[in-house]
## 1
Amino acid sequence: MSDEDGSQRTEHPTARRLRRARDEGQVARSVELSAAAVMLSATVMFFMMGGAWLKTLSGYFAAGFTFDRKLLETPALLPAAFASQLSHAFMLLLPVMLLVLVVAVLAAGATGGYLFSIDAVLPKFSKLSPMAGVKRMFGPNAAMELVKAVLKCSIVAVVLLVLIDRHSSELLLLGSMGLKPGLALAGSLLSESALWLTFSLVFIAMIDVPYQRYTFMKRMRMTKQEIKDEMKDMEGRPEVKAQIRRRQREVANARMMQKVKEADVIITNPEHFAVALSYDPSADGAPIMLAKGADHMALRIRSEAKNHGVEIFAAPELARALYFTTNLGQPIPDALYFAVAQVIAYVFGLGQSHPGVAPGAKPIPQIPASMLFDADGHLTSTQDQSR
């Protein structure tokens, strides 16, 4: 990527760009995080089990210098004895090796996740370019890696020098001490050294992890033209268009269902259609269509209405007429005003009725012949509209 091209990459990468990079094996990785996690787990386990390990190891060490008469008379048995001591030591260290292995695997996927990409291992002729190699050796990434290496070595060296200076007298006494006290002192010194070295590696990892994420996202940046081309490519695919339309329908239906609780009445088919109407008596306009649906959506509208105590009125012909002639948020047609007025007056009368007083007779709305529809939305003059 040239400097000019890099200066134009000012836009954040899209999800598709990141997904393609991941398929090619490009993710944010931090080697320092893995090193710090491995060192930290080993140090914690050493602090928990160090005393028992040193005691057992000292026993193995002492037993290695104890020979019975049979071993002395048969030198061929020495390899078997050595193998036995080695196997005991291996089994003693096996738990920490397994822990380190598990932690290394977990830490490797902590930043970029786990993936296996064939593209990452396939040979690429672009990587054989001498100029590309020179850029990698002397570019900003190489300079940063050099700074990181120098910083890490400096921190570790300073920690070791401080520890040696603090415990120089104790280190000189190790050669004149007995086995058990010498191992105990050595274990204490190793524990303290491992602890401070672990802290230094954790400090380096805390700097490296956000830096790796930043450099990866910077490397993935796109130009404005690339984003436009990608959007055109995605919007041109039928499955993407279908997904966008489906998402738009879901959002519109969710917004519509929120308005059902504001309705004054739900007029139903009663099974296949449902429309929600709202009417403000103080206003001068006609009732407004708040929601409408067929089949499954009609069932959801009825269920939402029951949850909020909205009256449901069964009028098949009127429900179909409203469903096929009125859009959401629009007033009902003038031809249906009288039929809807009968229903709303009946519903308002139910709300104003008193205990012991029978409500008015349920109206049978009369629909003009020009507003009679069948279940498929076709105009019909047939009066038998039972669906």
## 2
Amino acid sequence: MSYRQKILKFKLIRSLSSLKITLVCLFLLYLLTLGGMVSQIHEGLYLAQQRYFESFVFLLFGFLPFPGAQAVMWVLLVNLVCVALTRFVYQWRRVGILIIHSGLLLFLVSAYLTLHQARESHLTLSEGQAANVSVAYHDWELAIWEAPLKEDSSLTDREVVSLDTNRFHPNQTIELVEQGFRISVKEFYKNCEAFSEQDSDAPLNASGITHLQSAALQKEPEKNKPGGVFSVTTGDQKTFDILLFGAETRPVTIKAGAKRYHAILRLKRFPLPFVLRLKDFRKEEHPGTTIARSFQSLVEVQPLEGKKFNAKAWREKLIAMNEPLRYKDFTLYQASFSVDESGQESSTLAVVQNAGRLMPYISTLVTVLGLVTHFSMMAVHSRKNTTNRKRHD
């Protein structure tokens, strides 16, 4: 008994290999793509992406359960594997079909890697400014670092402890052994409003905020401002509360023994393996208007070796629409720009880190190779059949 005959004994595998499932999945993906494009007009890009493409199930029209793209693609993956095990004919003349199926499987694998491994952030620079840290769009962190001494106030390189706010929950305690204190989460809101009132028992805050009130989440997550009240216990068992709000620019100072530390809620920071300097920002406007027709950034890139600069490795790169900067797993796109009241121009670059960024290209190449192979072999086979018929005639 062959392996295929053994597999076909399982009714579930036979059912999952049905071509009807393939067609239904492809049709659902079409509907989800169409629905996501329309939905982002009213709900915003982020919420539409979360609902239609990253979910397993969501409520259509608010009450009808509907499969999300992630569930559909998992079903399609299982379906393709079952088809390969039970229905596919492994013959030389069918090698093109095998390559096509391999390309489709690679597409699904690349989608999984992009969903779970890709990280998006942005970097805003003024002309002449350089940086090697990008900022998240809507993910927040609680950052804590040692306050510099007065004579070291210009120091920019510092050790920062960052805590992911997505993992915060009430009564959670976080031990900071090296800093000599611990933090407990008393209240935390993903979006809130801040108020200042006369209150002698208000928690410690750098901006005079006394309390927070929870607010509904915005459709655009960039507009949400998190906040929380945290209890700090130092090594000598002194306990006090601090209040942090996402819209603040000044950190709260924590005294722990002989040292002082700064704490602030901020958008996540991601270190880059290179330093990027904006050398020149260029903008072209439509004639007779102030509307930008095109804009681009001339940047200088300097790779980092550990924490050291490689002074001989500066290179220039022009970043424009459809002309990104690629460096290892990072891709930087021209996203937007701004001009302040003094006329100083700033350029915002979208930063995407994706270890599997080449996978979609490889998948496309494999699929196209399979199509070319399949149709070429069909043409050769058809020509041979035509020649044989003429001989018989």
## 3
Amino acid sequence: MIIDFRVQVPKPDRVGTRTDYMKRYLDIFDLSAVSYSLPQLLSLLDAAGIDRAVMQAEWSSGDYREENDQVAEIARKHPDRFVGFASVNASDGLIAVNELKRSVETLGLRGLNVQPFASRLYANDKKFYPLYYKCLEYGIPVAIHTGINYSNDRTIDYGRPIYVDEVACDFPGLKIIMNHGGWPWVHESVAIARKHRSVYIEIGGIAPKYVAAENAGWDILLRFANNLLQDQILFATDSMIPFDRAVNEAKSLPLKPEVLAKFLGGNAQELIRSFSK
């Protein structure tokens, strides 16, 4: 089974939906190639051999409640295909906490996705802590954007994985997914995952061939993925890389066959099972 641990809400015109501070993404990614309707998304997943996907709402601006509603509706219609994660802006305080409560208790979403750089916060900012506490209470994971952001008006330091270490220390047992693997600080991601068994590394938004490329900054992840971290790595596209291309490139990574099976779906299946009981 192949599981994509992060796809985005279907948008036929993803280019036109970029907020001003994220326009730089248009220069780096061909978002027209990943603009689709729900029927198109299902067809693309089928063509790539992807059996299930975690659809993560992603707040960058606007009303995150609307996107949470969209994710929940898709997950309800296709429960065997999608698992839904909510998104909020931690700067909204109690409003964000109440939206997480609504998303889980009313909408049936099974995780939370936060983007510290979008809120101009660090992952260990105490504004996130009520949200982390609720995730721990519900027994659901939190996915945290780590690594570079391409917005020209805010520092990439918001995405350093090192800040996730404090979160994992303060919330033992909370399942944390470090989205994007924390590049260019992959060594920090690996160290934190080695330290905390409850922390996972996924590579959404990264073409897998670059993970194996020489001097691309991912070599330490591949080294540990083949042994100590083999149960803590997750395949994801973030809908930024065409699904069939991502799967084909992932299958060519220098991973042991049993580790590749875990990376492409086994670990995600176990993680989903842990919060779907």
## 4
Amino acid sequence: MEYRTLGRSGLKVSAITLGTFTFGGVGPFARVGNQGVPEARALVDLCLDHGVNTFDTANMYSSGKSEEILGEVLQGRRDRVVISSKARMRMGDGPNDEGVSRHHLIRQCEDSLKRLRTDWIDIYYMHEWDGTTPVEEKMAALDTLVTQGKIRYAGCSNYSGWHIMKSLMASERDRRVRFVTQQIHYTLEARDAEYELLPVSVDQGLGVLVWSPLAAGLLSGKHRRGQPTPEGTRQFAGWTEPPIRDEERLWRIVDVLAAVADRHKVSSAQVALAWLLTRPAISSLVVGARTPAQMADNIAAVSLKLTDEDLTALNDVSRPPLIYPYWHQGQFAAGRFSPADWAMHAGNPPPEW
């Protein structure tokens, strides 16, 4: 296993993180997975045997059941692992049962600690932006939780670039704990994060964890052009995340993934994950699995080394267009780009005059 430093922190996380989105199967989550304690234990055991030290959950996954299951199977092994959880989503019917207010965050953190059977959460993510709570209140609440020893690092998820910078500004101005990481959706099919989120991560020293790095299984190799949706997949169950805006583009990417995978005699999933591990600021990929064999295949992506030819083919078929102001910067500012700028512009063809 490869271990990467999480942003500017001193924390080392495995390049693959086990995502527990499928633990519990309560409510709408049952369409994605319904893994109980025995199935979860088998996955966690396999991950630990392969050197995975990072496990991701959230308070709202199966209404807390995911945290409960993860906490149970990690009993006696807590000191060996890094646990991340999240808060912000609605967890009740009351007016204060969602958001990132001090009231909601502290209560939800304490509830998560009980479900996880632990005294601390290593990485605590703000699961989604809350535009009604002042960022100063949010960062102060996170600072309190760190001071109390209930969390060790803070991060955000599904924020825009300006949301991140506004939060960082508040924490630095008031000398509060700052975000050290963000968790984002980023795949060969969905490279929107390259416009702002990767550059801000490079510039501000944020480690990046990627959720659903196989696009909910669409890049796993199970889905192929012209074939019916396979039974047992999220799409077969009616799951609509992430949105696919250009289906033909998706199939072109799937075709190239399959060709690269055939050259290396590995799965398409391994190629898609290995590509992500070459990208700037990436610390870990949050991968779920239905079976230990599937998880073992995902873990093997860490050892896959893609050639320059592979990377060129994958980038050419998936590169996002340069939207404004990036096309203008590409023409007139490239001579003074920083490493953060190149997180967006690297690999783009030179402008034509």
